Amino acid sequence: MGDQDWWNEVYSGPREEIPWDIGVPSEQLVELIEKGEIKPCPALDICCGTGTEAIYLAKNGFKVSAIDISKEAIKIAEKKAKEAEVKVDFRVGNVLEIPFQDNSFGFVNDRGCFHVFASEYRKWFADEIHRVMRPHGVYFLRCFSDKELGDWGPYRISKEEIINTFSDLFEIFGIDDIKLNGRRGSHRGYKCLMKKK
Ligand SMILES: C[S@@+](CC[C@H](N)C(=O)[O-])C[C@H]1O[C@@H](n2cnc3c(N)ncnc32)[C@H](O)[C@@H]1O
């Protein structure tokens, strides 16, 4: 999808025009945390946008770091965390060069990150996520699926692409259909929970 300037321009505009920025944590993340399947641990939110899910994780006891390529998004996220009175280590950064050491995180949260990368970057993406995760750490992917019509916005990802990209490095616990809620309605997506091998 867009470059850094494009993302900054989106986040400099009115919030209500940012399609994915719904202001509440996704039902998939809430369900995962409420079920107690992932215990509080050092967590990384990749492509965190304005920080909604990072802040939700911090409120639930996780020690959260979060990165996004847009400095405008990070400015908004920092303000929101201050208002929510939670601590999140927000960084402007590229997911393909994550500014953290190897084996840093027990949980990586991804709502709409992987699906912004074209196919030639996907293995690189998987290697980088894997590098910063602790052994047996959990990666929670949510992306547009190939069942979503049209070709605007994010890439449509097939189950085969998820398996081909991640299965060498992660144990995959199923790929399920979801609705990804946005400001302009919901979209067909997949959720996938994986554990670092
Ligand atoms: C679809 S939005 C999702 C934002 C957020 N996760 C949410 O659910 O609201 C994709 C995000 O990826 C960020 N992004 C795009 N390319 C990136 C990269 N190479 N590294 C880090 N962030 C990136 C954009 O700035 C944008 O915030």
**Are there runs of 5+ residues with pLDDT below 50, and where?**
none
In the CATH hierarchy, what is the superfamily? Vaccinia Virus protein VP39
Strand content: 25-35%
Strand order of the largest sheet: 3-2-1-4-5-7-6
Number of helices: 6
**Coarse structural class:** alpha/beta
Q: What is the CATH C-level name?
A: Alpha Beta
Q: Largest sheet at a glance?
A: 7 strands, mixed
- What's the CATH topology label? Rossmann fold
Oligomeric state of this protein: single chain
User: Separation of termini?
Assistant: 29 Å
Task: Round the mean pLDDT to the nearest integer and report it.
Answer: 96
Helix content: 25-40%
Gyration radius, to the nearest Å?
15 Å
Overall 3D form: globular
Could you tell me which ligands this complex binds, including any ions or cofactors?
S-adenosylmethionine
Number of strands: 7
